[in-house]
């Protein structure tokens, strides 16, 4: 049994607490939060979980082997560093840190101490993303030309981070995972409409080698709730729509084929419009998959799918996008 402490019992923290509490190969011993109402909720819901308003109680408890951090993004670095320095494995929610130098430091500490450091890039544990990755790696959709994603909604408006840092880690982590490489150029533009210097809407463009591209639209100021990723390949096109209850993946046998006129030896293009297929997926809760993976990596000394280096790569892209965002607004 791996003994765990959780720091942060907000909206997402409650989901993590629920999942770790339900798993049989760990014991969730204690939860820390500064909000008394949140602690009262945990105390009343889970009679066997201790609560505290002091995270140091978790750091100093020698019986706790792993710490799950789902507090505000600005606190991720300091709490993760304290936990790793205390010899505890760490699961930290996205974004891993707010600076790449801080992320690099956490990776080094975890490596030096041989501890598991895992980042909450949730969608890498989604069955639909697994399907997408296997289709790309097998060559089923051909060469990937470009990807684009939308993550928009009306609310929740935040005051401690903009739409880029709040939403983009999900899409960036998926795009890097599917492409298998880091972008060579990143640009972003956006606007702050509701609060000064806190962008409500952001558009991010990522360029990869071999002319591949990715585009991300992020907003908490939009009439629609959309969580959709489209991948356009040379053979097929695929749409992952996370708002669909069951039909998460749709495969379109559509594209443009190059043909050769054997009389003139000139190439010409033809449109191909084939069938749309909805593959059967064994849908499981991505968060439960993620929590189980964290415990498995600790027990079996495995490298997490979303390890510290993965978190670092995402933070680097976020940093570059933020710099581009600020430069665009100065013009």
Please give the radius of gyration in angstroms: 22 Å
Dominant shape: globular
**Which CATH top level class of the largest domain fits?**
Alpha Beta
Order of H and E elements: EHEHEHEHEHEHEHEEEEEEEHH
Number of helices: 9
Tell me the structural class.
alpha/beta
Which segments are poorly predicted (pLDDT under 50) over 5 or more consecutive residues?
none
Describe the structure.
With 331 residues, this protein is α/β, with parallel strands linked by helices. It has two domains: 2-123 and 287-309, Rossmann fold; 124-286 and 317-330, Dihydrodipicolinate Reductase, domain 2 (2-Layer Sandwich). The chain is 35% helix and 31% strand. It has nine helices and 14 strands. It has helices at 11-22, 36-45, 56-60, 76-85, 100-112, 127-138, 163-179, 286-300, 308-330, and strands at residues 2-7, 26-32, 50-52, 66-69, 89-93, 117-120, 144-154, 185-191, 201-207, 213-219, 221-233, 237-241, 249-261, 266-277. A hairpin with a 5-residue loop joins strand 9 (201-207) and strand 10. Helix 1 packs across helix 8 (286-300) and helix 5 (100-112) packs antiparallel against helix 9. The radius of gyration is 22 Å and the shape is globular.
């Amino acid at each position: 049994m791996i003994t765990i402490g959780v720091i942060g019992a907000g909206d997402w923290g409650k989901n993590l607490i629920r999942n770790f509490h339900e798993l049989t190969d760990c014991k969730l011993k204690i939860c820390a939060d500064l909000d008394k109402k949140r602690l009262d909720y945990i105390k009343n819901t889970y009679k066997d979980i201790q609560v505290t308003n002091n995270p140091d109680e978790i750091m100093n408890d020698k019986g706790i082997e792993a710490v799950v951090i789902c507090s505000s993004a600005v606190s991720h670095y300091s709490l993760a560093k304290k936990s790793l320095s205390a010899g505890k494995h760490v699961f930290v929610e996205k974004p891993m840190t707010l600076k790449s130098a801080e992320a690099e430091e956490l990776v080094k500490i975890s490596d030096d101490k041989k501890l598991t450091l895992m980042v909450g890039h949730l969608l890498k544990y989604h069955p639909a993303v697994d399907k997408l990755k296997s289709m790309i790696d097998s060559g089923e959709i051909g060469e990937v030309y470009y990807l684009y994603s939308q993550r928009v909604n009306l609310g929740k408006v935040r005051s401690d981070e903009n739409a880029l840092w709040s939403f983009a880690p999900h899409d960036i982590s998926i795009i890097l995972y599917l492409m298998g490489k880091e972008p060579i150029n990143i640009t972003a533009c956006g606007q702050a409409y509701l609060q000064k210097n806190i962008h409500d809407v952001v558009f991010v463009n990522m360029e990869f080698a071999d002319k591949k591209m990715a585009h991300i639209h992020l907003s908490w100021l939009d009439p629609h709730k959309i969580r959709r990723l489209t991948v356009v390949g040379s053979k097929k096109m695929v749409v992952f729509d996370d708002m669909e209850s069951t039909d998460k993946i749709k495969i379109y046998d559509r594209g443009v084929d190059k043909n050769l006129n054997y009389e003139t030896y000139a190439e010409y293009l033809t449109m191909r419009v084939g069938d749309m297929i909805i593959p059967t997926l064994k849908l499981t809760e991505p968060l439960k998959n993620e929590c189980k993976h964290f415990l498995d990596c600790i027990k079996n000394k495995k490298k997490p799918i979303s390890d510290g280096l993965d978190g670092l790569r995402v933070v680097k892209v976020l940093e570059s996008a933020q710099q581009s965002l600020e430069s665009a607004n100065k013009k």
